[in-house]
Write a sequence for this structure.
């Protein structure tokens, strides 16, 4: 999502959106608008940006050299082996045409293997795979050929290459025509939709006025059960691969985001097992099993066999995401331990470790933004994903809020401009990913609805624009269920193959599609769409409630997104990274200990001298002991909601017993 938004050419769209700190939330819900007033922008319909154009020109020059090398052995009358190798340079496997006979069948087989090597390149940054297949097939053909080549191969190979080029150009031409048509359609509805979005986001929930419902607590237990297991254990995770969306790191990040959302907006005055769960996730992220994929990608993607530091070059899929998680934890808790030198050390083995802290992780993101030709920089070696770069920009926004830096202000204008020029297609949407080396765009998960709430963290205006498109194009998915209530319906014929796959485990399933819409709808106040998403999840995805709520027909990652969406309300995702709890929370009493899962905390909020708690029993009703800290030393406190009184000790701490019978509300305050 770039400076000029994904919807190009609408006069209400500005060209750049400087990021601003947020002021503390008002004491009650009042209209707020933190966007930047829209300006004017030039009409754009997805022409190539200068960096992409230069990459394409370089591709053409390199291929021109290959073609010159391909014909040289024939023109020079060199041996049949060299001629077969040369013909193999026209396209992968073409050298087998020179061998002739039954070997010709190896040509289409090599094209299949080459396609798989491109998948490996995309999947795990294996840059050497397609190069190895192309040159290796040419070398194999040279070894197989007899005393002379099959003469028609000299013409067939370049003709096949030209035909392949023509097919891709034709498909691209048709796609661009369809994009232009869709762009014009979007221009018609965009201004009204954006106005609706601005109206919906204008009112946000006031701090300290919410509590988690029993259903939300049951969902949050799904996250807590995974986060509270010992560091380095992965019960309840999907362990498939560590390269793409099912990787452990993404599950850990979003488990952390879910806890950060709950802490920021519902229980900011609770540390206890919630804080321990957040820290467990941070420290589990440092385990070799989570990040050692970078060792392999460094070798086969960067040809780097010595330095596997995961927070140095590229790898925004770690630095950006982890930076967000650690920043959100610090903002929600006030704990700055991970900013200390060496606090985030990635240990490869007993001899090798890569010491980092929150600041060095963030500086890695900044440095890579500054040095990348596209400004946006790669995840795997070579592949640039705009959505991962949104995590990266969000991590800078959190750091700016915490430590007073100005990274977003410095980097965002160019970042937005490059996103517009280099990563926006003809219909105004963002490309899912682009090759850093070749400039070629590839099909991948993308879409305005899935990008919008991330963009909202560092550029509310950009986020709103994305959602203005996404919400309008999702409207046709709402239908009536058997009870006449609105729900989402995903028509199978309208979905691509990737849309039908849960990226958290690579299995068929619709949960992830539903939860992505749910999160966007909640963030931008589209409550009708959010409720339709929630109803579809509950009806289609195997909702199970047995103390802990989950969806049996979805991955761990999709379930965690569902928890996030289930507890979010307007602006919550953004505020958990760039605003945090009000100042009173950092100075007032807080709930320091409670037993999990016996005591479920639905609300914990201090307005300075008091502490408001809402507790639920996690099992059978009974008496539970809770700990409170940061009270006034030696002062007597009363507990509204019971007859209990107690005195804080000299350190400002106290333990009290609470009888939990269903929802139990307590208001602890100094005695008058």
């Amino acid at each position: 999502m770039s400076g000029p938004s994904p919807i190009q050419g609408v006069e209400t769209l500005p060209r750049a959106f400087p990021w601003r700190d947020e002021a503390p939330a008002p004491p009650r819900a009042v209209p707020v608008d933190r966007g930047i007033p829209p300006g004017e922008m030039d009409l754009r319909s997805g022409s190539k940006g200068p960096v992409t154009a230069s990459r394409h020109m370089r591709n053409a020059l390199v291929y021109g050299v290959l073609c010159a090398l391909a014909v040289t052995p024939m023109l020079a009358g060199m041996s049949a082996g060299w001629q077969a190798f040369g013909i193999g340079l026209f396209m992968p496997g073409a050298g087998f045409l020179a061998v002739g006979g039954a070997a010709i069948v190896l040509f289409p087989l090599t094209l299949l293997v080459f396609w798989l090597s491109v998948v490996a390149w995309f999947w795990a940054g294996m840059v050497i795979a397609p190069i190895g297949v192309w040159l290796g097939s040419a070398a194999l053909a040279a070894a197989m050929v007899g005393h002379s080549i099959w003469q028609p191969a000299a013409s067939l190979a370049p003709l096949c290459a030209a035909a392949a080029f023509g097919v891709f150009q034709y498909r691209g031409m048709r796609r661009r025509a369809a994009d232009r048509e869709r762009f014009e359609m979007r221009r018609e509805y965009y201004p009204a939709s954006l106005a609706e979005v601005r109206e919906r986001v204008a009112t946000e929930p006031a701090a300290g006025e919410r509590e988690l419902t029993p259903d939300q607590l049951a969902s949050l237990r799904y996250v807590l059960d995974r986060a509270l297991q010992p560091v380095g254990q992965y019960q309840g995770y999907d362990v498939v691969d560590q390269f793409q969306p099912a990787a452990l790191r993404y599950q850990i990040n979003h488990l952390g985001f879910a806890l950060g959302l709950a802490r920021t907006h519902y229980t900011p005055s609770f540390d206890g097992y919630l804080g321990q769960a957040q820290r467990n996730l941070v420290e589990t992220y440092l385990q070799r099993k989570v990040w050692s994929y970078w060792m392999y990608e460094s070798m086969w993607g960067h040809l780097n066999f010595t330095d596997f530091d995961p927070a140095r070059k590229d790898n925004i899929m770690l630095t950006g995401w982890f930076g967000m998680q650690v920043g959100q934890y610090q903002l929600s808790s006030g704990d700055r331990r991970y900013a200390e030198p060496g606090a985030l050390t990635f240990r490869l083995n007993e001899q090798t470790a890569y010491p980092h802290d929150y600041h060095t992780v963030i500086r890695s993101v900044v440095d890579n933004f500054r040095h990348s030709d596209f400004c946006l920089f790669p995840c795997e070696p070579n592949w640039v994903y705009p959505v991962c770069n949104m995590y990266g920009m969000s991590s800078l926004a959190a750091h700016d809020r915490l430590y007073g830096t100005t990274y977003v202000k410095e980097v965002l204008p160019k970042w937005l401009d490059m996103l517009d020029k280099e990563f926006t297609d003809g219909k105004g949407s963002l490309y899912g990913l682009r090759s850093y080396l070749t400039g070629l765009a590839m099909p991948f998960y993308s879409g305005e609805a899935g990008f919008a709430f991330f963009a909202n963290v560092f550029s509310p205006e950009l986020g709103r624009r994305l959602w203005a498109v996404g919400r309008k194009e999702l409207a046709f998915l709402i239908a009536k269920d058997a009870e006449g209530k609105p729900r989402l319906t995903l028509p199978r014929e309208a979905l691509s193959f990737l849309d039908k796959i849960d990226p958290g485990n690579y299995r068929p399933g619709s949960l992830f599609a539903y939860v992505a819409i749910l999160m966007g709808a909640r963030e931008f106040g589209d409550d009708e769409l959010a409720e339709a998403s929630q109803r579809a999840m509950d009806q289609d995805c195997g909702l199970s409630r047995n103390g802990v709520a989950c969806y049996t027909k979805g991955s761990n990652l999709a379930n965690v997104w569902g928890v996030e969406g289930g507890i979010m309300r307007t602006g919550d995702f953004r505020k958990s990274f760039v605003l945090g709890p009000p100042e009173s929370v950092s100075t007032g009493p807080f709930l320091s200990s409670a037993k999990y899962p016996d005591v479920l905390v639905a609300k914990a909020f201090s307005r300075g001298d008091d502490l408001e708690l809402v507790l639920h029993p996690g099992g059978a009703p009974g008496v539970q002991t809770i700990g409170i800290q940061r009270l006034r030393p030696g002062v007597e406190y009363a507990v509204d909601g019971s007859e209990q009184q107690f005195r804080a000790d000299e350190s400002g701490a106290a333990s009290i017993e609470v009888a939990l019978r269903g929802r139990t509300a307590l208001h602890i305050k100094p005695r008058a």
Notes: Residues 1-45 have pLDDT under 50 and may be disordered.
